[in-house]
Amino acid sequence: MMAWYQGPQARRFAVALVVVVALLGVLPVIGIDAYIHNQLTLLFITIAGALAWNWMGGFVGQISFGHAAMFGIGAFVSARLMLSLHLPVPLCWLGGAVVAGVFALGAHPLLRLRGPYFSIATIGLGEASRLVFTFWEKFTGGSSGLSLPIDSIMKYQLYWYALILVGLVAITSVAIRKSSLGLKLLAIKADADAAADVGISATFYQDLIFVLSGAVMGLTGGMYASYQSFIEPNDMFGFDRAISFVLIAVIGGVGVSLGPVLGAVVFVLVKIYLLTSHPDLYLGLYGLLLILVVLFEPLGLTGLYRRIARLVGPKRPAVGQAK
Amino acid sequence: MARLLDMVVSAVLLAGLYATMAYGLGLIYGVLRVVNLAHGGVIMVGAYLGWCLYVGFGIDPYLSIPLVAVASFAIGVAMYQGLVRRLPRGAAGGPASLLLLFGVWLVLRNIAYLLFKGDDRSIRTEYSSQSLTLLGTHISINRLAVVGIAILIAVGMHLLLKRTQTGRAIRAVAQNADSCTVVGINTNRIYTLTFGIGSALAGVAGVLLATLFSFSPGTTGSPELLKSFVVVVLAGLGSVGGVAVSALIVATVEVFAILVLPSYLTTAVGFVLLMVVLVLRPGGLFGTRVLS
Questions:
Q1: What does the pLDDT average to over B227-253?
Q2: How many helices (H) and strands (E) does chain B have?
Q3: How far is B169 from chain A (nearest CA, A)?
Q4: What is the mean pLDDT of residues A104-132?
């Protein structure tokens, strides 16, 4: 088997990634207005979070409604590190990521559960951590929240930090998907018992992915906190936040390594549009989108794209490409 | 001592509500193997229907229960026929149905929000604040009625499932749907019916909820879904009597948590209990193992 970084497909991905990241990287230098600069920063953070969710929800097939727990922990730990220890900001993010990863490891017992049991247990995980962290005022400031000491330079630079994060997370996504680890996850997703019979421990690999996914979630949470420079537990740990990652991944294409990128772009655009024009239709529209995707195009926008590409694109012989 | 008795009584009364909420979720899962994530949404719809009938037409919430049951039954049938049935074969129990029904929940929440805004509402009748005094403890008439209805529903469900031809068909489909088609049971009809009954029960639970607590589109739904799920999982699947017992256990744990925890955190007890139960007894107290 070819390693994930070999072959024409990997080369194409590498070139595309370098070009896109380089282009986005020089955008602020050329000069874009502050609004777009901020929205792009937010978009990068969102994409990173959704990609990390997809590792668990898409690759392993365990739909988590509780990823906001790790997101919130990353945010509050990094905020605390800034406020109490005055560490350099990127170090604080890493600290948040580590704690979020350890927390995810602590959720190990939940990973024995599969399917709906796992999903609903994660709702419990998310809501319980929201309540506990709201209650823990010494650490999180309770419902009055925390303000972060982020200066305007840091906020400006956050753009590049978030861009680097997205690049790394995207590479990791493709690496997991195309490597033998990805195949093992696929086996677990298809049938955990059968995977165990050929020596693939569902528990071990789910732990691994949950910890990785949780740590990245913590990192995005930390960056998001710095972006907002004010955080409040009910929002950071909120159910709406948890489901936004689910929605993005589903809209973009669950299990497709870069599907959530597409999903996040659409999600953020729709959100910006809806919040200004029809804020009261916001949830329902996403619900409707979810229903339509599940019923008609289980791979979301990626599926739609592939369908259109097949219709209008040149007839290429099907190369043995994994779906 | 009097306080202890108070707490035991309030646990029993709360259990009535929890059991009613859980029956529908358990029934649908038992027969279709689908966790109805829209369950909390239907409970919310039931609460609003009861509220509208009370405020708009002056119909007493306990009298509106049959109306709400019929309406929620129709919602359930529509949900099954329009959505769940269309899932690709084999996907019905998987992530697809979770996401689908979750979408339905979001839509229901949004509709409620559009129609009623985000305000807290509740059904307050003349007898809402009346209570009986028994052995020195006060028992709210409302809560007592909720327990009575929960018991009625349990008995009704038991009779339906055990004594009627339809009930036998439902149980047969739950055991083995393929064999049922061989002996001429219309499985699609049974699934539709089950989804309808499950939703009707959720709607009724919503009315009961509305007579006891305030509700709003933002806050009603996920706690109810989670509590129903705790009860169902603890009971083990497919056990009507088990649901009543485990509703009592969950309610007791919650009520007594007030003794050791700050009141704000008692809400988290249900969620923690859910995780503990799932991890320690995933097969429930009265059911079979569900871990794959």
A1: 82
A2: 11, 2
A3: 25
A4: 84
When scoring B35, B44, B101, B107 by the number of chain A Cβ atoms within 10 A, the one with the most, hence best to mutate, is B107
Burial (CB count within 10 angstroms: exposed 0-12, middle 13-18, buried 19+), residue B45: buried
Per residue in B65-85, pLDDT tens?
A: 999 999 999 999 999 999 988
| CA A186 – CA A169 distance, rounded (Å) | 19
Nearest to B201 by CA among B12, B17, B13: B17
CB B44 within 8 A of CB B108: yes
Residues 6 or more apart whose CB falls under 8 angstroms from that of A23 comprise none
Contact A101, A215 (CB under 8 A): yes
Is residue B224 included in any domain, yes or no?
A: no
Residue whose C-alpha is closest to residue B75's, from B113, B110, B114, B36: B36
| B213 burial via Cβ count (<10 Å: 0-12, 13-18, 19+) | middle
* Per-residue tokens: A136: 């823990």
Contact A237, A133 (CB under 8 A): yes
Instruction: Encode B68-123 in three state secondary structure.
Output: HHHHHHHHHHHHHHHCHHHCCCCCCCCHHHHHHHHHHHHHHHHHHHHHHCCCCECC
The answer to whether position B291 is within a domain reads no
Nearest Cβ partner for A287 among B103, B265, B292: B103
Q: Is residue B237 part of a domain?
A: no
Q: Does B107 score more than 90 pLDDT?
A: yes
How large is the ipTM? Answer: 0.83
Chain A residues in contact with B104 by the CB 8 A cut-off are 287, 291
Domain that holds residue B32: 7-219
Q: Residue A113: its chain B contacts at CB < 8 A?
A: 278-279, 282, 291
In a domain, B268, yes or no: no
Total structural domains in chain B?
1
B222 to chain A, minimum CA–CA distance in Å? 8
Report the predicted TM-score, pTM, of the whole model to 2 decimal places.
0.83
Q: Which residues of A touch B290 (CB under 8 A)?
A: 117
**For residue A126, what are the CA distances in angstroms to A67, A199, A209, A237, B218?**
7, 32, 18, 7, 16
Q: What pLDDT is recorded for position A123?
A: 84
All residues at 6 or more sequence positions from A219 whose CB lies less than 8 Å from its CB, including other chains: A48, A74, A93, A94, A96, A97, A100, A165
A178 half-sphere exposure, CB direction, 13 A CA radius? 20
Alpha carbon of A180: minimum distance to chain B alpha carbons (Å): 23
